[in-house]
Amino acid sequence: MMEAKRAAETAGMSRGQWLQARRRGIGGSDAPALMGASPWATPLSVYADKMGFLPEKEETVAMRFGRDAEEIVARWFAQDTGKKVRRLNAILQHSRYPWMLANIDRKIQGESAGLECKTTSAFHKTDFEAGKIPPYYYWQCVHYLAVTNLERWYLAVICGNSGFYHYVIARNEEHIRILTEREKDFWINHVQAGVPPEPSGQEADGIAIGAMNALAEAPECTSAELEGLEEVFDQLALAKAARSASEKQIAVLEQQIKISMANAQRGRCGRWRVSYCEQIRTTLDGKRLKAELPQVYEAYKKANTIRPLLVREAEREEGD
Predict the structure, then answer these.
(1) Per-residue pLDDT for 280 more than 80?
(2) pLDDT of residue 42
(3) Helix axes 173-186, 43-50, angle to 10 degrees
(4) Three-class SS of residue 34?
(5) Distance CA 115, CA 107 (A)
(6) How far is the C-alpha of 114 from the C-alpha of 47, rounded, in Å?
(7) Count of alpha carbons within 13 Å of 49, Cβ hemisphere only?
(8) pLDDT at residue 319, as a whole number
């Protein structure tokens, strides 16, 4: 088995330099998105990031905590298992596929294994105590196994202040093959070819498309001939019609329940529980504020640039 190459040394590397280095290939955190297992990212959002359309991600409190807590997770794992761990301080590269990269948390000394350190909220829905592993953790570890050619990967998780769990993920050649083929297709047929993947409808796709289609400061009102998309427009019209019918049906059913509730604020029906309580919703009267305190309105108004997609069916011309 060939060992992974050291593509870049990370000791002393700034966060900006590290993010730029990650864009040169597919990393472990990208793998779950390409396998459809990430709640936060999609193939399209990964594509937009690799192509440089998305700005560098700002480090959140959760990201910063996870990074700083990595040392604690690794130390607790070593204490619980008696295994020795060490940093590699390098971005590793697959010996055959140079676009498969890995920035692993720790290498297990004297063993063909690595360690992934995680921290998560105590409200995480995964039953860690029962040995469950979130799929996005699993595919990240599979990616590292593919890049490094090691035999197993350990996963250690601090779940809020409720528990510390660690697991071993054995090398699964079939899963490695599936992931490698998915990543190969993504890198060659999308990133290198400059062809974005199909969207999935997730919020991350909307952000990616907005970044990819960003207009200049003073755009001209141009027009595009969208040949070959007739079926897409037809499907969109049908989906909107179905949504409209569904929303109307929901409204009818809710109205039936409201009639039965009358003045009651709570109700029961078999396994169902109903709340029908009054709530006060406070809003700002922008029209009145603009009329009575125009200077205050001007000082605090906020303009957001949006680019809504409006689709309508053209009137048929005579002879169509």
Answers:
(1) yes
(2) 97
(3) 60
(4) helix
(5) 6
(6) 27
(7) 22
(8) 55
Whole-number Cα distances in Å, 113 to 37, 72, 99, 108, 173: 23, 19, 22, 5, 15
Q: Please answer whether residues 91 and 130 qualify as being in contact, where contact means their C-beta atoms are separated by less than 8 angstroms.
A: no
On whether the pTM is more than 0.85, the answer is no
CA distance 251 to 61: 40
Residue 15 confidence (pLDDT): 82
Q: 150-163 burial, b for 16+ CB within 10 Å, e for fewer?
A: beebbbbbbbeeee
In angstroms, the CA 66 to CA 62 distance is: 6
Residue 189 and residue 219: Cα distance in Å, rounded? Answer: 30
Instruction: Say what the pLDDT of residue 2 is.
Output: 61
| Strands 90-93, 163-170: pairing kind | unpaired
The whole-angstrom separation of Cα 279 and Cα 148 is: 57
Task: Burial-class residue 44 by CB neighbours within 10 Å (0-12, 13-18, 19+).
Answer: buried
In this structure, are residues 173 and 7 in contact, taking their beta carbons and an 8 Å threshold?
no
The average pLDDT across 157-186 equals: 96
Distance of alpha carbon 166 from alpha carbon 13, whole angstroms: 29
214-244 tens-digit pLDDT: 866 656 777 888 889 999 999 999 999 999 9
Q: What percent of the chain has pLDDT above 90?
A: 70
Q: Minimal CA–CA distance to 89: which of 70, 73, 75? A: 70
Largest CA distance in the chain: 82
Query: C-alpha 229: how far from its chain's center?
Result: 28
